[in-house]
Amino acid sequence: MEFKNPLFFILLLGLIPYIIWYVLKYKKSLPSLKVPDTLKYRNVPKSFRLYLMHIPFVLRCAALVCVVCVLARPQNLHSWSDTDVEGIDIMLAVDVSTSMLTQDFKPNRVEALKGIAQDFIAKRPNDNIGLTIFAGEAYTQCPLTTDHTMLINLYNNADCNMAARGTIEDGTAIGDGIMNAILRLKESPAKSKVIILLTDGVNNVGNISPLTSAEIAKKYKIRIYTIGIGKNGMAPYPLPTGGTVMLPVKIDEPTMNKIANETGGRYFRAHANDELDAIYKDIDKMERTKFNVKQFSKRSEMYEPFAIAAFVLLLLEIILRTIVLKRIP
Fold first, then answer.
1. Which of 72, 76, 171, 265 is the most exposed place for a label (fewest CB within 10 A)?
2. Which residues contact 55 (CB under 8 A, 6 or more apart)?
3. Minimal CA–CA distance to 158: which of 128, 185, 182, 138?
């Protein structure tokens, strides 16, 4: 807990002269009676009111302290951080075309890839990471952010149903996917800017070729790590009517290699989740960039307990003074 207006505590200094005044007044008001011998008064019982005589004054002082605390505006102290951390700006460009429903990964490529990407995000807590998804066209699912919980939630909402239902055009527009990610990174002040391209196919639609987008990325000093997902040979593909059909796996590995080499990245072929360890280690070696992260929460007032205490103390003081310790003139 902290106080918004601590200067009000100066008012407590007024209790010092008030206490002195009360003591002097009490001594002056003590009655005096001269008697030759006090022996016969020695065993006279004392009234309980004698022990309560100064309680109203103590209650009044305590109530004044509580009132001053209310004026000082007590507030609960929430966590606040303003720290510099080191990280990389990374855009994930993920293929969500219907071919990603192929079942050579369990349960299929797109779902297995979510696990891979989420593991990657979890291992990069200090990085600005965003998400581009593409099929026959590309769009930003999540801009660069350090809020990785939100990023993962948005990634979980991305699937191949958009292309299957015609919400977006089906196909594999690798160049458009890269270009969309470039637009999110090109104005970034980070020294290290990276695109992680994950796809299972060959560029067959789109407005820009993959190699042209790679040249643009190179201009903005953006590295592209390309990952081809899919096992070699034939792979089962689910039919809308049920069952599966075996289809050949087609990944344009020469183009993926050229994109990576052009921008200073690397190409990886993912046959299983653990094969992405190499890309983690490679990115960890890159130069990191410092950026500022602020976290704060709303403060709330905590004056109510002090106000209630002041009211109760004043009420007790009035009851004692006017009822229990009432004096008859």
1. 76
2. 320
3. 138
Report d(CA 315, CA 160) in Å as an integer: 70
Closest CA relative to residue 275, chosen from 151, 90, 152, 112? 112
Residues with Cβ < 8 Å from 59, sequence gap 6 or more?
Answer: 313, 314, 316, 317, 320
The answer to whether 173 and 124 have CB atoms below 8 angstroms apart is no
Whether 198 and 117 have beta carbons less than 8 Å apart is answered as yes
Structure tokens at 248: 């050949």
- The answer to whether 207 and 103 have CB atoms below 8 angstroms apart is no
Tell me the pLDDT tens digit for each residue of 244-275: 898 888 888 999 999 999 999 989 887 766 77
**Residue 156: helix, strand or coil by DSSP?**
helix
Count CB neighbours of 14 within 10 A: 11
For residue 198, the SS3 value is: strand
Dihedral sign from CA coordinates of 37, 38, 42, 45: positive
Length of the chain: 329
Match 């006017």 to its residue by tokens: 322
Determine the average pLDDT of the residues in 176-191: 92
Q: Which residue has the tokens 């796996």?
A: 249
For 194-250, the pLDDT digits (tens) are 999 988 878 999 999 999 999 999 999 999 999 888 877 888 888 878 888 988 888
Residue with tokens 């801009």: 143
Kindly report the number of other CB atoms within 10 A of residue 255's CB atom. Answer: 20
239's CB contacts (< 8 A; 6+ apart) are 245
Does residue 199 contact residue 98 with C-beta atoms inside 8 Å? no
Q: If we measure between CA atoms, which residue out of 218, 230, 285 comes closest to residue 258?
A: 218
Helix (H), strand (E) at residue 8 = none
